[in-house]
Amino acid sequence: MKNDLIVTIFGSTGDLTARKLLPALAKLYKQKTITQNVKVICLGRRDYDTETYLNEMQKLTSKSLDLPHLSKFVEYFKMQITDLTDYQKLNTYIRSISNEHSKHIYYLAIGPEILADVAKNISESKLIEFNNTNQVLVFEKPFGHNLESAVKVNQMLWNYFDEKQIYRIDHYLGKEMIQNLMTLRFANRIFEDTWDSKSIESVKIFVKEEEGILNRAGYYDTSGALKDMVQSHLLQILSLVAMDPPNLYESDYIKDEKVKVIRSLNIDKKSVLFGQYKGYLEELNIPKDSKTETFVYFRVFVNTPRFRGVPFEILTGKKLSQKESYVEISYHKTSEQEKWNLPLHSNKLRILINPKGAVDLSINSKMPGLKDNLEVVHLNFTTTPSVEGNIPEAYEKLLLDIVEGSRTLFTRWDEIEASWHFIDEIKKCPHSLFVYESEHELMEKIN
Ligand code: BG6
To answer: How many other C-beta atoms lie within 10 A of the C-beta of residue 74?
Structure first.
């Protein structure tokens, strides 16, 4: 039978495939969100059959894989991803199981060192033909390690593929609360009218993790928190928080506004703090003299008419007290509040991204009773547990969007370019490396 959808995964024996891609595909298939006429081809050089492959994948993840469903559409295909003749064999096979309308997704879950070779082979073997938007390429960060290398990677991709055929994944964009940012801002009068420097005093974008680097020493030590988290996830959140409304709610219009934000960033050079958790140097395969940061904090200004003068605090790090990510908007006190001789708080809007989605607005209110006492009360909603079970994982949403050709949740090259430009600027700021044992020590240094 010919398949309507063929997803081919390069690097299919890795962590990402086991932990994220296979579970997401299984769920989309089981819920019939994607066609039942799908084939997922997992490439690897080991001598597996499909059953052995899936069993090996199960060993890589603590969650149980939906093997009954996966075995219906996954197929292991043995090949050397450096060998062009193997690509030609793959192409012959794919053609035999597809028709002229089939959608082809090539997912590169591979390291940056082989990206160029794989892209070239995909193009030369005609797995992807230039401009055919039914044949697309998906890949993940790192998109280079600085501006110069990112430009080279991108130029290389543009040699073979049209921008419309390239999907750059930032999995934070698939998270529910990040997708909700534009709705909260632009579909609510109370926020839309107050989303600027007249009302907002400061913004925090904090992404904290409790885990260390796990078993990713090789990648992490060459990256560090700034490139691993800020260049991608945190700058994406920042751009969604600070952007102006787009002329149309369509992918390119939204990106046009996001990129303006990233280009307008002005770092507060004196605020930059880099940290490394105690014990990092003892992690397996980390050089004993490594200076890689596992924590970064800085203040930045968004130099646009909307936000000029408002400090945005950016923080991310590993081995902190808990896994928690949020955006916190602090409002100015009202002019009337100044006249009151009472302890009044400024309103805060907290948008919780992890570990669950929630929105909390704190307001001042009179305490019930005969006295004029005030208290802070919270207007909030949380994704309730019954709904939570149904909340799609980021990768489900992103894979579905690729299948449907919806590009809003993927990054465009100019966003990446502007992000690297900014990251290279931060790298130049004078900073030392503070060795931390607890989040508390870091917070004391910041405040
Ligand atoms: C990845 C980073 O992009 O995001 C990891 O490479 C980090 O270092 C992870 O742990 C965090 O993602 P999430 O979805 O668990 O918050």
So the answer is: 26
